[in-house]
Specification:
Blueprint: H1 2-23, H2 29-70, H3 91-110, H4 113-129
Helix pairs in contact: 1-2, 2-3, 2-4
Pfam families: Sec10_HB (PF07393)
Protein name: Exocyst complex component S10b, variant 2
GO cellular component, one term: exocyst
Length: about 130
């Protein structure tokens, strides 16, 4: 995503500095080229969004897999059983936190700006509401 963002910025800069200026004197060509450029950028953004959405779905599937494999019924002790609550993290919790830490490290390295913000917001939303 980081590379594609850089490439898009280079393309936009080249279009603005070179191609767009050449088309200004040609009747209707400048407007058509700008419209085509906007359509291409929109398609690129949609593809990036779809890819990030698939990443989030994959992350959440792995979280669910880890929880299914590691959680035990004894992890959920009722306060009614007379035992003091154990506030230590369970094995399942520890594994999920470690996995999400690696995901976040990768996201902070690979994403920037609004892409990072959108990805992290979506990931948190899925984690809180779909988990």
């Amino acid at each position: 995503v980081q590379r594609s963002g850089s490439i898009v910025a280079i393309i936009q800069q080249y279009f603005t500095n070179s191609i767009s200026r050449l088309l200004l004197p040609v009747d209707g060509a400048h407007a058509a080229a700008c419209e085509e450029m906007a359509t291409a950028m929109s398609s690129a953004e949609a593809a990036a969004y779809k890819g990030l959405q698939q990443c989030i779905e994959t992350v959440m599937a792995e979280v669910e897999r880890l929880l299914s494999a590691e959680q035990k019924a004894t992890d959920y002790k009722s306060p009614d059983d007379g035992m003091a609550p154990d506030h230590r993290p369970t094995t399942a919790c520890t594994r999920v936190v470690a996995y999400l830490s690696r995901v976040l490290e990768s996201a902070f390295t690979a994403l920037e700006g609004l892409n990072k913000q959108a990805f992290l917001s979506e990931l948190v939303w899925y984690f809180i509401f779909d988990h």
